[in-house]
Amino acid sequence: MLWNYILFIAPLVVVTVIAMWLAHKLLAYRPQAGATSLALFMVSLAFWSVAYGLELGNAVPDIKIFWYKAKYLGVVAVLISATYFVFQYVGYYRWANWRGLFAIGSIPALALAALWTNSLHHLFLRNIAVGAQSPISMLHVEYGLLFWVFTAYYYAVFALSMTLLVHRCWTKCSGQLCRNVLALLVGASAPWLANMFTLSPWNPMPDLDLTPFMFMVTGIAIAWALFRHQLLYMMPVQHGAIIRSMKDGVIVLNAQNQIVEMNPAAQRILHMQTTEADHFVGQPIDKALAIWPTLLTYLRGLAKEYNTVLTSDDSAGRRYFDVHITPIYSQRDQLAGRLLVIHESTERERTAEALRQRKQQLRSMVEQMRYADHEKTQIMTMLQTELDMPLLHMRESLMQLENGASQLEKEYVTSIKQEVEALDNLVRNLRESMAKTAREKSAASPVHTNGHGSSSPAFLEAEAKLSTAQLTSISGAHRFSPAS
């Protein structure tokens, strides 16, 4: 007798160990989408297996019935966690939230309430008692109407999950992703088929639930996909999730220019509320893009890529948008729709405008500096011209006066010559300053080019030397010689 119990309970212990080990390993994957729900799924499998093992291992009828009812906590948790994981895995985020949990778990919760209050109405179980002890003590259950309603709902939700998995993944993935999907299908189908066989009239042991024993296949399949093929790191990404997460506005149109999809960024750009956006889906694009009538004109007759910059005004000022339209073609090269990508470029345009204004300011400052430099050059040239000739005449006059002059007159002439020499030094310093300024301007300003759009260093150096030589020669010709 003991060996009979070991034969039936040992596989359930193995299932529990595998499930809890996988749940522990999945804790390391918690940042990944689906890791938490998959871990809860494994814990639910373990609870179901433990509860069924305790049901089989107890001989007291009331305890067996208690664990039979407790087992359904795991049954319900398996359904909810598995469906939630599938929603996350295929990217069906519209239902991967509290609303989805409530929708999935409402009927199972009512079924649990009906099970635990069955003694009041017997709608879930018509009768439950310990059956014949062959080969071990098991409960013989006669199911009621609510049980079959719950079972039909369970199968329907399971079928929906498998359909989503196949539709979203199997038809759109290859290689490693396909192997992961296959592992999930095998792991989920094994206990489902076992449960169907348990409830069928062909089961030779109708009181034995074969479902928990097939959880071993589920655990092995998930472990194979998780550790061999990176199940949670190689998840198929739904295109809708990508579009919703984009910072640029995205609008998908069909061939009739009706809105097929619109992401939140596009809703913000067009000043729409979420409820308004849902109303616009399926409607012509005309009303949604009423602020840009020129774009509507292009959409009505455009069958090629198009780029433009559009503006709109709001309380924050003028905003700029880069709009890119891409036609979408079917496999038969027929126009199937259009993709609008709207990128806000307000900051870029404002920065460009600020740079343009700054450039204009700098250009104005340069013009003012050039004008001031020109005026300065004219003044210095005028001073040089006005002083050179008088100094020359004064030197000649002093030389004539010095010849045949008395001693007193020579002293006066010497005093005047010293004043003229000081003035001559002033003019010479002025010439040197002009020459230095000319050299600095030639080195800093790209006035002359060498054919490549840049200044020619050799040409600038030659020009500077020539200017210096010319000024020096002029200064030397007019300079007063003390020895003369």
Rg over CA atoms, rounded to whole Å, is: 47 Å
Beginning-to-end CA distance, first to last residue = 145 Å
In the CATH classification, which architecture of the largest domain applies? Up-down Bundle
Oligomerization state = single chain
CATH topology of the largest domain: Rhopdopsin 7-helix transmembrane proteins
Number of helices: 15
Please summarize the sheet with the most strands.
5 strands, antiparallel
Low-confidence stretches: 447-484
> Superfamily at the CATH H level of the largest domain?
Rhodopsin 7-helix transmembrane proteins
Structural class: alpha+beta
CATH class categorisation of the largest domain: Mainly Alpha
Number of domains: 3
Q: Summarize the helix and strand pattern as letters.
A: HHHHHEEHHHHEEHHHEEEHHH
Number of strands: 7
Helix content: 55-70%
- Across the major sheet, the strand order is 4-3-7-6-5
Task: Describe the structure using short key phrases.
Beta-Lactamase, alpha+beta, two-stranded antiparallel ribbon, about 475 residues, single chain, Rhopdopsin 7-helix transmembrane proteins
